[in-house]
Amino acid sequence: MNKAIQAVGDIAWREKATWLAFLMAVASELILQSPNIGRVGSYGPLTWVMLVVLFGVMLWAATSVVHHAEVLAHRLGEPAGTLVLTLSASGVEVLMMTTIALTGNPDPQIVKDTIYSTIMILLSGLTGVALLLGGLAHGEQQFNRKASKSYQSVLLGMVGVSLLLPTLAGEAVMDKIHWFIVPAFLVLYAVFLKLQIGRHSLFFREPAMSEHAKPASAHGTAYHAIMLLVTIASVVIVSEFFAVGLDEVTEQHNLPIALKGLVVALVIVGPEGLTAIRAARHNELQRSINILLGSALTTIALAIPAMLLVGQWKKINFSFVLEPLQAMLLLITLGVMHITESEGNTNTLDGVLQLMLFAVFVFFTLTGR
After folding, report:
1. Cβ pair 290, 207 in contact under 8 A
2. Is residue 57 exposed (0-12), middle (13-18) or buried (19+ Cβ within 10 Å)?
3. What CATH number did the domain enclosing 46 receive?
4. Which terminus of the chain is more exposed, N or C, with fewer CB under 10 A?
């Protein structure tokens, strides 16, 4: 009996991030459903404290998602294992966007802002940090440029059709081709996955295979799969409560609308980005690229079709039109990434350049320009 209690206690302590998120999710639902508690944004200074706490809980819980996904990834092996990481993060992103978009007054901008912010954080911010720290630790780092080329070509095609085309030709274009984008993106992504885990899987492995530390776990695969799902569900429920407060604060203080997308994107890519940075520091640049570019590709390939379907279901016309400055910065980022990764090696200069673009992105997002 004592051993059973001790085992339960050990699991509770080990999974404290998940249980905290679960308890916050239950409390959030009780508050949202209670008619005796005022609106989330009416708590004065306490609202800011609440938002910071909820953001920290979601970010911490997201690290738990990455941990369980990493265990599953190592047990599946590469490159298939990395898909668990990217698909888990994409699942959180789609569910969070859906929850936030449908909470309170429907926000037609949240999809575009979140996807744009996610791509910029992955391709400029996190990639910049990974290349900089990896370059400082190991000098010039090698990776398989065939993998990078595959990621970039599919990513550019999807970004061009879903974001740049509506930006240049107008929102009406999306109304005409949304029925085409959903199956086309899903089929293209399926073909890409077939290439990644099939006969061309060598493209996505380290040029010189190195052994990275495997996350220790005494639990079975089913345990990690269940905890992964529980944590994702808890984060999504907490995000609904978080969205209500963020909407109120944004409106009351006239904050940039795009700030919501940036905050959601940080929760989504933060823990996964730390995994990619850690891989680069361990001289596993190919794994880092698989995570960062794979996450960006998964965001476009799955999130956009999912949100188009949600929009059709809920009769919400989500906007995919970028601001001219956003479109130009996105094109510059994709162009610099293509040049940086065209030869199969990187160094610290490449990382500093990417971080400069990320600084520009953050500046314009926070200033609302």
Report:
1. no
2. buried
3. 1.20.1420.30
4. N
